[in-house]
Design goal:
Order of helices and strands of chain A: EEEEEEEEEEE
Strand content of chain B: over 45%
Largest interface: A-B, 27 and 28 residues
Distance between the termini of chain B: 38 Å
Number of helices of chain A: 0
Order of helices and strands of chain B: EEEEEEEEEEE
Mean pLDDT of chain A: 91
Low-confidence stretches of chain A: none
Shape of chain B: globular
Helix content of chain A: under 10%
Largest sheet of chain A: 7 strands, mixed
Helix content of chain B: under 10%
Largest sheet of chain B: 6 strands, mixed
Mean pLDDT of chain B: 93
Oligomer: heterodimer
Shape of chain A: globular
Structural class of chain B: mainly beta
Number of strands of chain B: 11
Low-confidence stretches of chain B: none
Number of helices of chain B: 0
């Protein structure tokens, strides 16, 4: 596997289910991100991790719970979601955030989530 | 006012035409500008990366940044059906990797 991988690629869940999304990066990066992509809306940053530490939670509801056990893996645990949470969830990675500059983010293919 | 404005299209052009895409922004602190290409059922991939004002060319692609007007553009020359995708602009003030994205502009190149 190369680059950034995400599983599952598609997920359908009920509002009472609990599921998890997985992201793995094979690029040696130390920063990882979760984004939400909805139709006709800009990408929304949800969470940022640098060296396994969460450095940003962009006012995301608690029904989304991220976990970063190491610099290569990132999870998004989902529970009691709402239909409006249906979207494409994208994971990205980059070099760790440094003062000055902006490093390129590399995206995975995303998980298409449908909440019934 | 939204931080980044991008007309979502769609934009349909015949093969071989020049595709012109643009974004405007409101934050004068932005100095890193990117264009991502996203094919259907795929994640975005970086296409062009520019710093501050000026032009950058890479093959059939040219990115322009006009910071005085807070306006960036992407031109695709000799467009091909394989260029059919959604193009997202993104920008950052630097200092961290926080990107502000446009909505994306869907482009269809008709053979």
């Amino acid at each position: 596997e190369t680059g950034v991988t995400q599983t599952p690629r598609h997920l359908v869940m009920g509002m009472t289910n609990k599921k998890s999304l997985k992201c793995e990066q094979h690029l040696g990066h130390n920063a990882m991100y979760w984004y939400k992509q909805s139709a006709k809306k800009p990408l929304e940053l949800m969470f940022v991790y640098n060296f396994k530490e969460q450095t940003e939670n962009n006012s995301v509801p608690s029904r989304f719970s991220p976990e970063c056990p190491n610099s290569s893996h990132l999870f998004l645990h989902l529970h009691t979601l709402q239909p409006e949470d249906s979207a494409l969830y994208l994971c990205a990675s980059s070099q760790a955030e440094l003062a000055g500059g902006t490093d390129t983010q590399y995206f995975g293919p995303g998980t298409r989530l449908t909440v019934l | 006012q939204k931080e980044v404005e991008q007309d979502p299209g769609p934009l349909s052009v015949p093969e071989g035409a020049i595709v012109s895409l643009n974004c405007t922004y409101s934050n004068s602190a932005f100095q890193y500008f990117m264009w991502y290409r996203q094919y259907s059922r795929k994640g975005p991939e970086l296409l062009m990366y520019t710093y501050s004002s000026g032009n950058k060319e890479d093959g059939r692609f040219t990115a322009q940044v006009d910071k005085s007007s807070k306006y960036i553009s992407l031109f695709i020359r000799d467009s091909q059906p394989s260029d059919s995708a959604t193009y997202l602009c993104a920008m950052s003030a630097g200092g961290n990797n926080r990107l502000a994205f446009g909505k994306g502009n869907q482009v269809v190149v008709i053979p």
